[in-house]
What we know:
This protein is an alpha/beta fold. 46% of the residues lie in helices and 18% in strands.
Amino acid sequence: MSFKKFIRYVVLIVISTLLTLTILFWLTIGSLVFMAKAVGKGADEEASKPVSEHTYLELYLDYPVHERTGSPFNNFNPQTLRLEPSPTFGQLLDMIREAEKDPQIDGIVLRSNMPQTGWAQTVELRRALEHFKKSGKSIFAYLDEITPKNYILASVSDKIYFNNVGMADWKGLSMQLLFFKDFLDKLHIDVQVIRHGKYKSAVEPFMQNKMSEANRLQNKMLLTDLWTEMLRDAHAGRGLDTAGLNKAAARLRLCTPADLMRYKMVDTVFPVHALKQHIKDEDETTADIHFIDERKYFQKTKAKKLLNPLSKKLPQIAVLTAEGEIVPGEGKPDQIGETSLIKTIRKLRRSDKVKAVVLRIDSPGGSATASENIWNELKLLAAEKPLIISMGNVAASGGYYIAMAGEYIFAEPTTITGSIGVFGLVPNIRGLAENIGIHVDTVKTHPHADMGVFRPLDTLEKEYYQEMVEHAYGKFLLRVAENRGMDPARVDSLAQGRLWSGEDAFANALVDTLGGLREAIQLAEKKAKEKNPALKEKTFRIKFYPAPENPFAMLFGLDAETRLWWKTLRDLKKGKIFSGEWADEYNRLFLQEKIWMRMEYTPVIR
């Protein structure tokens, strides 16, 4: 082949490649534009439809109710080519307040058989429903199942209707934990534990096969507090005999619709098709009534706010959500990434629009170092602007640590908080490695340079880790003592890794008062006006942070989760077999992070 022909072929290949890439690029853009138009059209059509007269808002709560907005593509329905967004908890509260003022909404119908709200969210949601009821509008509940959690909400209703083939799940509350000691022994893995706090039971699953008595005690007290709150609400809402409800749970007496009628837990039993007529009869109306579920109504109320140009000019109360495990770096969408959260905190501190901040915490804690770094950044913010803390379902260990930067702390009676304690885990997998034919040989400059997972810790090394744990625990006590105005010895007596319900935390001065997100925002507004007298007559815009990831960044792989997967692929290409998301968790737990401020588990209460 002559040189000219070779050049011609090269030029043709380059040109054809560029043309192919250009066509693919414009096809991709065209597809995105088509999808965006289809999605926007669907959302606009739904949002633009007016709410009919005599409409009742249905609350199903059959989706995870998060504190922060996630990816919009999580809400995309490919069958309808529409976004079907679910409200966050803050948006859910706003929506109920909007329905209270909406002349087209006559009332609310609770259809939540298995609400996906946490226990603290459920209690605050009940207060929002009570406020709605005071406006003179009706609340009805129609349920197929009754559980302790959904009864917290249902008991606020004017009438509770029940499906004629429904069932009750009324047996009390329980919590089951998994223990791995025997399993790890069979694998020849020895997890070496260093901790401070007899209640710091995060390490128990690796050490033993059942709960310690201290852990059993704190878990039993938590369950008792949650159950007591439910009974209190049932009595307040319907005047029910709490002793009778306890006996019914102990003897499994509540099962069928007839049982529920006998205990006066429901008012009437009928099939769902008769619901509309029962509501019309109860509200004494002959008008045709309509129903709208919370997702559709959310789209309408959200569109109304977006179309209000004045709201963007108002001074802001920022609600900063910290949801998930606290980890170093950016973290994933369901984590509190130290780097990303600190960026947002700095943004709020430097913004002239933001006049006060509410930190909404729903976290079991995590990395001790990341918790300290976040606390430091929050203290800088608190030095310039009011910082109010609102605890959600869980604000424990590292979650409680970062709360110590605020000037006032709200918790719900059913919030799980405390867990002021520290631990470290160092697995010894030498037995496992040798058992499957892997052998480790070491060369080192100093006696302890190879301290890690391929041999047991010696006495000096255990003392070294214990010193780190004690240092972190001492720092934790200091942070709490300063914020709560307590003697460190008093804090220590309440600490030791112990979990507290919000109600008990309030009784022990670990939080300032019982209340939720709405109350925290109201206090933030008051503090902002005190600090800025010129704002005395102003109304505020409530804005939630951090904002969701840019949808186009997600599409082109620039969001945090996609970046993690690209890293995994690069690692595999380099021959790093121990890669992937699970390995990331393993490395963080056992190798990268030595000291943890974390709850032992995220409680699953049934």
